[in-house]
Design goal:
It is a single chain. The protein is mainly α and about 110 residues long. It has one domain. Helix 1 packs antiparallel against helix 2 and helix 2 crosses helix 3. The longest helix has 27 residues. It is globular and about 40 Å long. It starts with 6 loop residues before the first helix and ends in a 6-residue tail after the last helix. The relative contact order is 0.14.
Length: about 110
């Protein structure tokens, strides 16, 4: 029988969720400064950074905000770029990380 997570494990994950949320605000601020990303900002307020990211990654479409970031040469400021950081992997399942990688690869993020 699987043991429930300890209070320390839950606290660590909660801290990591907060740590992920902070750069998501930065993503939204950057997008808003360039005239897009209002819906992402709303989602952050409504769901928090991790849940908003998971909702967006559940769809295979590249969202308009990610496309706009690619056009600005700012994919490093995208939610997907933070999802693929090893530091945040504990917050996402393998399929979500793979979807973030796929989108970034499709938009040329990994090209030299």
């Amino acid at each position: 029988m699987e043991q429930p997570p300890s209070e320390v494990e839950c606290a660590d994950k909660s801290n990591l969720e907060k740590e992920f949320h902070h750069p998501m605000i930065g993503v939204a601020d950057f997008a808003n400064a360039h005239g897009f990303g209002q819906r992402f900002r709303q989602m952050l307020g409504e769901y928090g950074g991790v849940s908003a990211a998971k909702r967006l990654l559940a769809k295979r479409d590249i969202q308009s905000g990610l496309w706009e970031l690619s056009q600005l040469g700012a994919l490093d400021k995208s939610m997907e770029a933070f999802v693929i950081q090893e530091h945040f992997h504990a917050l996402f399942c393998e399929d979500q990380i793979k979807e973030a990688l796929r989108r970034l690869a499709e938009l040329g993020y990994f090209k030299p």
